[in-house]
């Protein structure tokens, strides 16, 4: 699906809008953004329990990506369906405010695609930040509720529109019109991602052709003949140009000549077009999600967006450890890049948790249950990252799975399980422990439950749980060593 690359470096006047009456209030012009030095990708990874959340990746060259936050989710939705897909990251013209907007959809909860499309959420999920690293709690933006017969609100994007001094938020909604039910692109205008105008139809391809994924970028100096370009998954990957976000768009072409389509003509079937300019150049990469083959994103490159014949495929890229699904790329200034990497760029070592009284055995997950075993295979089932405690990051720790990023050891009815972080305070408390001197040997460690401090992590018949500890046997069972 879709994203937003906000590339405004000229002086603009911000306009504050209110839904009732559209009162205008002029704000001082925005300063030009500093030169860009890196890239940030917001994305999700798939339909697993924690895969439909917000993940981030970083790149220095715009082609080779490194997962941030050890490959785990950075933001969790606790509203609506409690899952998000297709995130778009938006920067204000002044570079002093950011938003992430995403589809409110969690297929992992058991809903079907038919239910999601016809009886799904009509809201988008929104996070807001002033520094790109500290984000607000998520909130819902009911953009499609006023569309007659709306079944969903998918694949949101947003772009600042200098002509009107506000943001155009656009997305796909499945609804009936003129006797045809399909996805069309709708839009609203907003100044604050809280209040917005009535939804208006934006793109309708006619006949029975639906469209879900589209993304608009602004091109400096109107390179190729147009100020704005948009790429849409509408059977082809169609590229259009315009000099106005809300004006008339001209079809430039598609990518059939590269053997790439959105299904209408076969070949490499892709979706989720995602634009990114290579810093300091006139080169643009259009990233396409090879969902039909499960290979993830691939870039096609152009130095003149005015003709799709200028696009070429490339192979000099890498995507990191996680599969990256529909997202967006933001070019970063040096200050933004420094903040992002300081927050999420450090790599936490991979460790194992060794039993004190069965020293050939290590803590591992098996079918999401937790036990101690010897000769663990695959080895990653017994590998964890010891991270600051989810409920208290001072003197407490949590254990994140290496091969299931975003999953943590937590107790449930005193039994230990591996579970995806759902963002609740209950989960955080259940997954947090105080590391203390080993109850059987002070050179080892024991782990005291955060929310049940009279209980400790221990094994019983090789299965892990949290229990009160009093006997010599129990102290040995509750003693472990963090090792490589």
Automatic annotation (TrEMBL):
Domain spans labelled Alpha-L-arabinofuranosidase B arabinose-binding: 352-482
Top-level taxon in the UniProt lineage: Bacteria
GO process terms (BP): L-arabinose metabolic process
InterPro entries noted in UniProt: AbfB_ABD, AbfB_ABD_sf, GH43_arabinanases, Glyco_hydro_beta-prop_sf
GO molecular function terms attached to this record: alpha-L-arabinofuranosidase activity
Stored Pfam families: AbfB
The protein, known as: AbfB domain-containing protein
Organism name: Actinoplanes aureus
Lineage, uppermost ranks: Bacteria, Bacillati, Actinomycetota, Actinomycetes, Micromonosporales
